Amino acid sequence: MQYLPLFVKLTDKPVLIIGGGSVALRKAGTLLGAGARLTVVAKQFTNDFVQWQQQGKATLIHGSFDPVQLDGMLLVIAATDDDQLNDTVYQAATARNMLVNTVDDQPKCSFIFPSIIDRSPILIAISSFGTAPVLARRLREKLEALLPQHLGPLAQLVGRFRSKVKAKISGFAARRQFWEQVFDSDVVRDVQANQLQQAEQRLEQLLAQPQQQAGEVYVVGAGPGDPELLTLKALQLMQQADVVVYDYLVSDEIMQLVRRDAERICVGKRAGDHSVPQQDTNQLLIALALAGKKVCRLKGGDPFIFGRGGEEIQALLPHNIAFQVVPGVTAAAGCAAYAGIPLTHRDYAQSVQFVTGHCRPDGTEPDWHSMSKSNQTLVIYMGLMKAAHIQQQLTIAGRSGKTPVAIIENGTRREQRIVTGQLDNLAALVQQHQVSSPALLVIGEVVSLQQDLHWFGQKPQSAVFGQALTRME
């Protein structure tokens, strides 16, 4: 983080601007909107500056910059078309440890002006740290269209009630739950309809009889890793939860989207490393929900596809704990798509099987014969440790050793890596390329299309297929 975003109260605070042209005018308008007390130094001024001086909003100094003019100032803006003069202002301000902004010269800025979305008292600031101001402006335009105008009046209303709520409801968590109820209530709709008096009366009623928040569990699929693959509902519930119980497979980028003040509990599961037994995880969810918490059980991929989501919900049922299930993009669909592998294709595969590489505790083997059919794609979760066994059993069951295979490591993530080859060298590929979890095995003729359809990340590390595939008639 190159700059620390801060909201600074500038009411009646002294700010110095060097320059009296159109660029300086834009900065001055923003500062006056924040209540700053402006002093502007320039040899010539636009009419707006002159009018501001007449209105008592700014003090104009006709002449050249002198470092003594910096004395007592909080902020300094160098906004002239003279690079040498701007540099002089920057050096003089920096020598005094003052915050200075040099317009259109990001290396000479100790603070910057962001693009602002104003729903006062709600303010949203967007910045590219001076590297891409047009991009920041376009982002602001998109958010302007998304954020309703009633946010400002709503924030003003609840702001008037903060002290009342603090006196009535003790404890930060309890107060936050109350406000969550308010924002889910008809108070918001009243404000949106400009029925502000009715909204205030409704808020008074809610405060007079606050409801005890019941616990709930959200079983949420986080997808294979790319945060842009999260569903909108998943993101909403991640932001609402008091506690997030998550696995190792949930990427750091996704965890950064969790509400900052939420408690985070890792019950990480990796191949060969189950740090928290499933029974303990079940009991944790029960205890948190019975304590009135909103619990987001965040799982990599989809919670109902090798995610034990069903088991965890079954554990909640005897306790009458409310729950929701949010599907996620399962690893098979997400990783294959990002690797350029269509799981089905009318010329190569008319069906697809998702299987786990982990055998059952009793050692029962899967149906290798059904998995070895041609014209079928096989996707194996958690199959790295069993790669040699999978290769052997599929070959024995009749799957050709020339069948194309892909190993997708960290699928959909920036560090995605793909290794392709043939079934008869699957185990060797895993060992040779030192593939590590999380990784997915894709076995089937569709893998050959990956060479043409690859689009995301690094080019695959490929072993040459034995022969070109022939399309089915």
Automatic annotation (TrEMBL):
Pathway as given in its UniProt record: Porphyrin-containing compound metabolism; siroheme biosynthesis; precorrin-2 from uroporphyrinogen III: step 1/1; Cofactor biosynthesis; adenosylcobalamin biosynthesis; precorrin-2 from uroporphyrinogen III: step 1/1; Porphyrin-containing compound metabolism; siroheme biosynthesis; sirohydrochlorin from precorrin-2: step 1/1; Cofactor biosynthesis; adenosylcobalamin biosynthesis; sirohydrochlorin from precorrin-2: step 1/1
Sequence segments annotated as region (Precorrin-2 dehydrogenase / sirohydrochlorin ferrochelatase): 1-203
Residue sites binding NAD(+) per the record: 22-23, 43-44
Alphabetical keyword list: Cobalamin biosynthesis, Lyase, Methyltransferase, Multifunctional enzyme, NAD, Oxidoreductase, Phosphoprotein, Porphyrin biosynthesis, S-adenosyl-L-methionine, Transferase
EC number: 2.1.1.107, 1.3.1.76, 4.99.1.4
Keyword Transmembrane assigned: no
Active site: 247, 269
InterPro entries per the UniProt record, alphabetical: 4pyrrol_Mease (IPR000878), 4pyrrol_Methylase_sf (IPR035996), 4pyrrole_Mease_sub1 (IPR014777), 4pyrrole_Mease_sub2 (IPR014776), CobA/CysG_C (IPR006366), NAD(P)-bd_dom_sf (IPR036291), Siro_Cobalamin_biosynth (IPR050161), Sirohaem_synt_dimer_dom_sf (IPR037115)
Ranges where the Sirohaem synthase dimerisation domain occurs: 150-207
Binding residues for S-adenosyl-L-methionine: 224, 300-302, 305, 330-331, 382, 411
Catalytic activity: precorrin-2 + NAD(+) = sirohydrochlorin + NADH + 2 H(+); siroheme + 2 H(+) = sirohydrochlorin + Fe(2+); uroporphyrinogen III + 2 S-adenosyl-L-methionine = precorrin-2 + 2 S-adenosyl-L-homocysteine + H(+)
Domain Tetrapyrrole methylase positions: 217-426
Region (Uroporphyrinogen-III C-methyltransferase), start-end ranges: 215-473
Modified residues (Phosphoserine): 128
PROSITE patterns, per the entry: SUMT_1 (PS00839), SUMT_2 (PS00840)
Coiled-coil stretches: none
Cited function: Then it catalyzes the NAD-dependent ring dehydrogenation of precorrin-2 to yield sirohydrochlorin. Finally, it catalyzes the ferrochelation of sirohydrochlorin to yield siroheme.
PANTHER family given in the database record: SIROHEME SYNTHASE, SIROHEME SYNTHASE-RELATED
Similarity comment: In the C-terminal section; belongs to the precorrin methyltransferase family.
Name recorded for this polypeptide: Siroheme synthase
Organism of origin: Rheinheimera aquimaris
